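From the methods appendix. Each design record in this collection lists the tokenized structure first, followed by the designed amino acid sequence. Records were kept in a plain field format so they could be parsed without special tools. The example shown here is representative of the layout used throughout.

RECORD:
FOLD TOKENS (232 positions):
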């Protein structure tokens, strides 16, 4: 998500002429840079008219972006969409962003891999919950567990908290064993590369993975514009 924010802001320091043509060229440049950063088939739209006035003042009303996927190296998301509003990009100093909203779907396999457990399986369950299938070890014994769990958003993290446990070979569990197994089944996944001030607003379990929505307000971001001409 940091790459999404930074490379959309870069349109603020691109020197071009014309109005809708200028907006289109700026969008094309932003899309090219997004591809270089691992976005698949990105589409950028510059909103607001006239665009040249925005370019001259270095303040942009609204920029939206979509992409089929993002491979960030330390994570992956699909069906990306984002919007920045009230973006001010001065000639020097941090870029100010009034508001940012973005969403993307993190495949279950990405979360499973991040836990380091090859045997862990995640899948969507009814009522927005997720099914967790894994083998856990408690007091030297291994238990094959299928759990229903709710998904919570906490800052920059996803928390997966079991609400119901089924353990192979154990038709019933006492409270102590249930608590111990629940603790082993629970997961925390840190969303990688979120800029400071951006946090997870909501997360929903879908058939394709975790649909994550992030938000941020009054952001201050330092962007390197080396090699990019600035408007005169």
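DESIGN:
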């Amino acid at each position: 998500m940091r790459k999404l924010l930074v490379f959309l802001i870069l349109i603020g320091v691109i020197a071009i002429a014309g109005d809708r043509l200028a907006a289109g060229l700026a969008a094309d440049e932003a899309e090219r840079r997004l591809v270089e950063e691992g976005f698949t088939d990105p589409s950028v739209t510059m909103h607001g008219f006239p665009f040249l006035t925005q370019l001259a003042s270095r303040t942009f009303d609204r920029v939206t972006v979509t992409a089929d996927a993002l491979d960030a190296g330390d994570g992956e998301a699909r069906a990306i969409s984002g919007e920045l509003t009230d973006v001010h990009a001065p000639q020097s100093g941090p870029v100010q962003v009034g508001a940012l909203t973005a969403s993307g779907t993190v495949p279950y396999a990405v979360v499973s891999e991040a836990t380091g457990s090859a045997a862990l399986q995640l899948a969507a369950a009814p009522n927005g919950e997720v099914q967790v299938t894994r083998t856990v070890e408690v007091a030297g014994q291994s238990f094959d567990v299928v759990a229903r769990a709710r998904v919570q958003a906490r800052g920059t993290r996803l928390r997966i908290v079991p609400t119901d446990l089924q353990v192979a070979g154990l038709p019933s569990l006492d409270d102590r064993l249930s608590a111990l197994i629940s603790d082993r089944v629970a997961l925390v996944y840190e969303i990688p590369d979120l800029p400071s001030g951006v946090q997870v607003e909501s997360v929903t379990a879908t058939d394709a993975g975790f649909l994550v929505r992030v938000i941020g307000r009054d952001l201050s971001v330092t962007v390197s514009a080396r090699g990019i001409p600035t408007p005169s």
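APPENDIX NOTE: Residues 6-22, 224-232 have pLDDT under 50 and may be disordered.
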